[in-house]
Design brief:
This protein is of the alpha+beta class. It has a single domain (3-204), classed as Nuclear Transport Factor 2, Chain: A. It is 50% helix and 24% strand. The chain is built from 7 helices and 5 strands. Strands 1-2-3-4-5 form a 5-stranded antiparallel beta sheet. A hairpin with a 2-residue loop joins strand 2 and strand 3. The longest helix has 23 residues, at 91-113. The chain is globular, with a radius of gyration of 17 Å. Residues 13-26 have low confidence and may be disordered.
Protein backbone atom coordinates (compact mmCIF):
# COMPACT_ATOMS: atom_id res chain seq x y z
CA UNK A 1 0.00 0.00 0.00
CA UNK A 2 1.33 3.42 -0.93
CA UNK A 3 2.23 5.96 1.75
CA UNK A 4 -0.30 8.39 0.31
CA UNK A 5 -3.13 5.89 0.59
CA UNK A 6 -2.09 4.91 4.11
CA UNK A 7 -2.03 8.56 5.21
CA UNK A 8 -5.48 9.05 3.72
CA UNK A 9 -6.81 6.05 5.61
CA UNK A 10 -5.23 7.17 8.87
CA UNK A 11 -7.43 10.25 8.84
CA UNK A 12 -10.59 9.10 7.14
CA UNK A 13 -10.89 5.78 8.99
CA UNK A 14 -10.61 7.55 12.31
CA UNK A 15 -14.20 8.70 11.85
CA UNK A 16 -16.06 6.28 9.64
CA UNK A 17 -16.55 2.58 8.99
CA UNK A 18 -18.39 1.97 5.75
CA UNK A 19 -19.73 -1.55 6.19
CA UNK A 20 -19.64 -4.05 9.04
CA UNK A 21 -19.59 -7.75 8.19
CA UNK A 22 -20.41 -10.52 10.62
CA UNK A 23 -22.33 -10.60 13.87
CA UNK A 24 -22.03 -7.72 16.30
CA UNK A 25 -19.94 -8.23 19.41
CA UNK A 26 -21.62 -7.54 22.71
CA UNK A 27 -21.72 -3.78 23.11
CA UNK A 28 -24.03 -1.35 24.82
CA UNK A 29 -25.62 1.45 22.80
CA UNK A 30 -23.71 4.08 24.78
CA UNK A 31 -20.40 2.18 24.70
CA UNK A 32 -17.42 2.92 22.43
CA UNK A 33 -18.46 0.46 19.73
CA UNK A 34 -21.99 1.81 19.85
CA UNK A 35 -20.65 5.33 19.42
CA UNK A 36 -18.71 4.28 16.33
CA UNK A 37 -21.78 2.66 14.80
CA UNK A 38 -24.09 5.59 15.48
CA UNK A 39 -21.54 7.95 13.98
CA UNK A 40 -21.17 5.71 10.95
CA UNK A 41 -24.93 5.52 10.40
CA UNK A 42 -25.26 9.29 10.59
CA UNK A 43 -22.36 9.92 8.23
CA UNK A 44 -23.55 7.39 5.68
CA UNK A 45 -27.02 8.93 5.75
CA UNK A 46 -25.53 12.37 5.06
CA UNK A 47 -23.36 11.03 2.23
CA UNK A 48 -26.36 9.39 0.57
CA UNK A 49 -28.28 12.65 0.86
CA UNK A 50 -25.34 14.55 -0.61
CA UNK A 51 -25.12 12.13 -3.55
CA UNK A 52 -28.81 12.70 -4.31
CA UNK A 53 -28.51 16.48 -4.08
CA UNK A 54 -25.00 17.80 -4.90
CA UNK A 55 -26.32 21.37 -4.82
CA UNK A 56 -26.82 21.05 -1.07
CA UNK A 57 -23.22 19.99 -0.40
CA UNK A 58 -22.26 22.91 1.85
CA UNK A 59 -25.01 22.42 4.48
CA UNK A 60 -24.23 18.71 4.53
CA UNK A 61 -20.51 19.44 4.93
CA UNK A 62 -21.34 21.56 7.96
CA UNK A 63 -23.37 18.73 9.44
CA UNK A 64 -20.57 16.25 8.73
CA UNK A 65 -18.05 18.42 10.58
CA UNK A 66 -20.50 18.72 13.48
CA UNK A 67 -20.80 14.93 13.67
CA UNK A 68 -17.01 14.58 13.54
CA UNK A 69 -16.61 17.17 16.33
CA UNK A 70 -18.82 15.00 18.53
CA UNK A 71 -16.73 11.92 17.77
CA UNK A 72 -13.08 12.99 17.63
CA UNK A 73 -11.47 14.34 20.80
CA UNK A 74 -9.61 17.26 19.21
CA UNK A 75 -8.32 18.80 22.48
CA UNK A 76 -6.83 15.50 23.64
CA UNK A 77 -5.41 14.74 20.20
CA UNK A 78 -3.81 18.20 20.10
CA UNK A 79 -2.34 17.79 23.59
CA UNK A 80 -0.83 14.40 22.77
CA UNK A 81 0.39 15.53 19.35
CA UNK A 82 2.25 18.51 20.80
CA UNK A 83 3.76 16.29 23.49
CA UNK A 84 6.21 17.88 25.93
CA UNK A 85 5.76 21.26 24.25
CA UNK A 86 2.13 21.44 25.43
CA UNK A 87 2.99 22.42 29.00
CA UNK A 88 4.97 25.45 27.86
CA UNK A 89 1.99 26.88 26.00
CA UNK A 90 -0.54 29.29 27.51
CA UNK A 91 -4.26 28.52 27.51
CA UNK A 92 -4.73 30.86 24.54
CA UNK A 93 -1.89 29.19 22.61
CA UNK A 94 -3.29 25.75 23.32
CA UNK A 95 -6.69 26.77 22.05
CA UNK A 96 -5.19 28.26 18.89
CA UNK A 97 -3.11 25.17 18.19
CA UNK A 98 -6.08 22.84 18.80
CA UNK A 99 -8.24 24.86 16.43
CA UNK A 100 -5.65 24.83 13.63
CA UNK A 101 -5.20 21.08 13.96
CA UNK A 102 -8.96 20.56 14.03
CA UNK A 103 -9.44 22.49 10.79
CA UNK A 104 -6.66 20.56 9.04
CA UNK A 105 -8.05 17.18 10.09
CA UNK A 106 -11.62 18.07 9.18
CA UNK A 107 -10.59 19.32 5.75
CA UNK A 108 -8.60 16.17 5.06
CA UNK A 109 -11.51 14.06 6.29
CA UNK A 110 -14.06 15.66 3.99
CA UNK A 111 -11.68 15.30 1.07
CA UNK A 112 -11.29 11.58 1.72
CA UNK A 113 -15.04 11.08 2.01
CA UNK A 114 -15.33 12.25 -1.59
CA UNK A 115 -12.58 9.96 -2.82
CA UNK A 116 -13.14 6.66 -4.59
CA UNK A 117 -11.89 4.50 -1.74
CA UNK A 118 -13.95 1.34 -1.36
CA UNK A 119 -13.54 -0.64 1.84
CA UNK A 120 -15.36 -2.96 4.20
CA UNK A 121 -14.79 -3.44 7.92
CA UNK A 122 -14.91 -6.35 10.36
CA UNK A 123 -14.76 -5.83 14.11
CA UNK A 124 -12.15 -8.00 15.79
CA UNK A 125 -12.80 -6.96 19.37
CA UNK A 126 -13.61 -4.30 21.90
CA UNK A 127 -11.55 -3.82 25.05
CA UNK A 128 -12.65 -1.45 27.81
CA UNK A 129 -10.56 -0.67 30.88
CA UNK A 130 -12.10 2.03 33.04
CA UNK A 131 -12.46 5.17 30.94
CA UNK A 132 -10.19 3.89 28.17
CA UNK A 133 -11.20 1.69 25.25
CA UNK A 134 -9.66 0.10 22.19
CA UNK A 135 -11.59 -1.19 19.19
CA UNK A 136 -9.73 -3.44 16.77
CA UNK A 137 -10.94 -3.80 13.20
CA UNK A 138 -9.80 -5.48 10.00
CA UNK A 139 -10.35 -3.36 6.92
CA UNK A 140 -10.27 -4.59 3.35
CA UNK A 141 -9.46 -1.78 0.93
CA UNK A 142 -10.34 -2.05 -2.74
CA UNK A 143 -8.76 0.39 -5.15
CA UNK A 144 -8.20 0.15 -8.90
CA UNK A 145 -9.03 -3.55 -8.93
CA UNK A 146 -6.67 -4.41 -6.08
CA UNK A 147 -7.56 -5.53 -2.58
CA UNK A 148 -5.44 -5.10 0.56
CA UNK A 149 -6.10 -5.72 4.24
CA UNK A 150 -5.28 -3.42 7.15
CA UNK A 151 -5.66 -3.79 10.90
CA UNK A 152 -6.94 -0.54 12.41
CA UNK A 153 -7.11 0.15 16.15
CA UNK A 154 -9.20 3.00 17.52
CA UNK A 155 -8.11 4.48 20.84
CA UNK A 156 -11.00 6.05 22.73
CA UNK A 157 -11.61 7.65 26.11
CA UNK A 158 -14.78 8.48 28.02
CA UNK A 159 -15.25 12.09 29.03
CA UNK A 160 -18.08 14.53 29.55
CA UNK A 161 -19.05 14.09 25.89
CA UNK A 162 -19.10 10.30 26.14
CA UNK A 163 -16.73 8.01 24.25
CA UNK A 164 -14.50 9.82 21.76
CA UNK A 165 -11.56 8.84 19.54
CA UNK A 166 -8.18 10.38 20.31
CA UNK A 167 -5.84 8.16 18.24
CA UNK A 168 -5.88 5.66 15.39
CA UNK A 169 -3.19 3.06 14.77
CA UNK A 170 -2.67 1.18 11.52
CA UNK A 171 0.29 -0.99 10.57
CA UNK A 172 1.78 0.03 13.94
CA UNK A 173 1.67 3.68 12.84
CA UNK A 174 -0.10 6.01 15.28
CA UNK A 175 -1.70 9.23 14.09
CA UNK A 176 -0.70 10.93 17.35
CA UNK A 177 2.90 9.68 17.27
CA UNK A 178 3.22 10.66 13.62
CA UNK A 179 2.01 14.19 14.32
CA UNK A 180 4.17 14.47 17.44
CA UNK A 181 7.30 13.44 15.56
CA UNK A 182 6.68 16.01 12.82
CA UNK A 183 5.73 18.82 15.19
CA UNK A 184 8.65 18.19 17.55
CA UNK A 185 11.10 18.22 14.66
CA UNK A 186 9.80 21.58 13.40
CA UNK A 187 9.85 23.14 16.88
CA UNK A 188 13.38 21.93 17.62
CA UNK A 189 14.83 22.96 14.27
CA UNK A 190 12.90 26.21 13.98
CA UNK A 191 10.37 27.31 16.61
CA UNK A 192 6.84 26.87 17.89
CA UNK A 193 5.76 29.94 15.90
CA UNK A 194 7.24 28.35 12.78
CA UNK A 195 5.02 25.32 13.37
CA UNK A 196 1.92 27.52 13.63
CA UNK A 197 2.85 29.31 10.43
CA UNK A 198 3.24 26.01 8.60
CA UNK A 199 -0.20 24.90 9.80
CA UNK A 200 -1.74 28.20 8.69
CA UNK A 201 -0.12 27.96 5.25
CA UNK A 202 -1.39 24.39 4.92
CA UNK A 203 -4.92 25.58 5.58
CA UNK A 204 -4.59 28.22 2.86
CA UNK A 205 -3.32 25.67 0.37
CA UNK A 206 -6.27 24.78 -1.90
CA UNK A 207 -4.81 21.33 -2.51
Amino acid sequence: MSRALRRALLVSLAFIVVAVAGRARAATADGPLGKVRRTNDRIMGLLRKQARSPAGAKPIDRELTRVVAQFLDFPELARLALGRHWEARSATERQEFSELLRQLIERSYLKQLRSNLNYTVRYLGEKIVGDQAEISTSIEVKRKGRSEALVIQYKMRRGTGGWMVYDVITDDVSVVRNYRSQFNRIIQRQSYNALLEKLRRKLKDPA
